[in-house]
Amino acid sequence: EVQLVESGGGLVQAGGSLRLSCQASGFTFDDYAVGWFRQALGEEREAASLINNADGKTHYADSVQGRFTISSDNAKNTVYLQMNNLKPKDTAVYYCAATRPIRYLSGSYWLPTRHYEYDYWGQGTQVTVSS
Questions:
Q1: Tens digit of pLDDT for each residue in 89-113?
Q2: Which residues fall within 8 angstroms of residue 116, CB to CB, at 6 or more apart?
Q3: DSSP 8-class letter at 90
Q4: Which of 38, 60, 73, 130 has its CB surrounded by the most CB atoms within 10 Å?
Q5: 121 contacts: CB under 8 Å, gap ≥ 6
Q6: What's the pLDDT at 32?
Q7: Cβ neighbours of residue 74 closer than 8 Å, sequence gap 6 or more
Q8: Is 74 helix (H, G, I), strand (E, B) or coil?
Q9: Is the Cβ–Cβ distance between 13 and 130 less than 8 Å?
Q10: Element (H or E) spanning 98, and its range?
Q11: Rounded to whole angstroms, what are the CA distances from 83 to 36, 70, 94?
Q12: CA 16, CA 53: separation in Å to the nearest integer?
């Protein structure tokens, strides 16, 4: 059974930092793309940051570039999201997600970035940034 268990959300003032963790089980972590989507009230779910464990490539939303850092510890089957210089607009429920990346015949990978391309989801953790 696949499980993604998030932790690390909370309330922080603008300019502060939080680190989210997602412990994965039930699949071969090294072969999957994993990462973090977020959904603010009334908004669509968007990719904040993703990493393809198969080749190490990462994706960041423009709005978090330079402030968020994603990392993956394959020995612990855990993906982290370090969020610095948080802004009120970062307030959302953050979801951990995982999927198999597409592998081309050349051997390179395509990292999916749309929520509907992800097969497995955590329960979500609330991040609230006060101004």
A1: 999 999 999 999 999 999 889 999 9
A2: none
A3: G
A4: 38
A5: 4, 95, 96, 97
A6: 97
A7: 29, 30, 53
A8: coil
A9: yes
A10: strand 92-99
A11: 11, 9, 12
A12: 28
